[in-house]
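From: lab user (bench 3)
To: helpdesk
Subject: output format question, protein + uridine-5'-diphosphate-glucuronic acid

Hello, I'm new to running complex predictions and I'm not sure whether the block I got back is the full result or only part of it. Here's what I submitted:
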Amino acid sequence: MDVDSQKVEKLRNGIIPIYEPGLENIVAENSKLDNLHFTDDADEAVAFADIIFIAVGTPPDEDGSADLKYVLAVARDVGRRMEVRKTVITKSTVPVGTSDKVKAAIVEELTTRNKDLIIDVASNPEFLKEGAAVNDFMKPDRIVVGTDSDHVRKQMTELYAPFNRNSDRMIFMDIRAAELTKYAANAMLATKISFMNEIAILAEELGADVEQVRHGIGSDPRIGYQFIYPGIGYGGSCFPKDVQALQRTGGEHGLPMRILDAVEQVNAKQKLHLVNRVNQHYQGDIKGKTFALWGLSFKPKTDDMREAPSRQIMEALWEAGAKVQAYDPEAMEEVERIYGQHPGLLLTGTRDAALTGADALIICTEWQHFRAANFDALAETLSDKVIFDGRNMYEPSRVEAAGLTYYAIGRGE
Ligand code: UGA
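Helpdesk reply: Thanks, we reran it on our side. This is the complete output you should expect:
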């Protein structure tokens, strides 16, 4: 159920409004099997379901806290229509204590004759990554459920049984613990990234190669290889928003989240690190230069541009009087929607077309398609023979052998 009728209509016709590998097939298959229906009719949706998931957005408020108006509006919509006992589960990322508010909102809306209904609420945070959402959902590392009800426990065990076959991945806990688990997980991952980005900048200064350091520390299982890739800062709809919301929660309880303050500061700085390198290379004068830009989405395998570092990079280049010729395998429509016909932006149909007439290349997203680059051809095409790589895609010696100057993150000059 969605209030956006156009979106519902598209989904009914098998059109997926976002790019997410594998999603289209699942939707098509289950629609065909009659397992999946789309509606914009709340009466129909509430009457149909035993278990209702609230999965609406929780965008940041002006002050950084999570805006609960959509979540609570759904809770009220459900309460108003509840005639029999139903379970309401919060899937949206919500601050600790929200499930209590959801329950209160439902109870408030119950009609007089339904005042005695048992209301089961639970928290079931989602841990999937964009671009790998289907796989993450089908083969979860863990399924966290916060509940104080045995009824919900049984329901959720049954519901998730198909995804929980080989080993038990269900982790039941208190509602508040489940809500905090979601934020703590994202904040920890964001911390790993910012930590590594700070080490990368130091490595640059020291003439050490951060990629070697990454291998060196990742081999310790206590640290692990995941989420220690330095880059141009984390983006997307989750880390920036969730880090801020947790800072806010801490602040509200008189507990400044000092580590997260630093995580955020380092990230903000990191998003401009590559532009600083560009300016350094051109001694502050990039007016009239044309930059080819590969990759625009905040990470590969998605068309999502929310908080994408490419945006800040492009905007800084325009500010300094440069032009951008950009290509992304999936995000072009989204970029057009955001920037319209911007005079400083030319969107090209292919990776190679972005290079035509460009002075230098900047890489913002590590799409697989960019890995196999022809450096000799790049050296011929780029008039200033320079690559600024925000994702450490290539082996520096290989790029330099083609006569190109190569700037990466944390790998010296
Ligand atoms: C993130 C979490 O990884 C998911 O577990 C969580 O469910 C999701 O948020 C959410 O809260 O809904 P997502 O935002 O889709 O998932 O993307 P990530 O793969 O986590 O990447 C986030 C950002 O970190 C990207 O900009 C990526 O480029 C950056 N990143 C990631 C790095 O710079 N270095 C790394 O080593 C890993």
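A quick orientation on your result: The pocket of uridine-5'-diphosphate-glucuronic acid is lined by residues 93, 126-130, 186, 189, 193, 227-229, 231, 234-236, 238-239, 298-299 (CB under 6 Å). Let us know if anything else is unclear.
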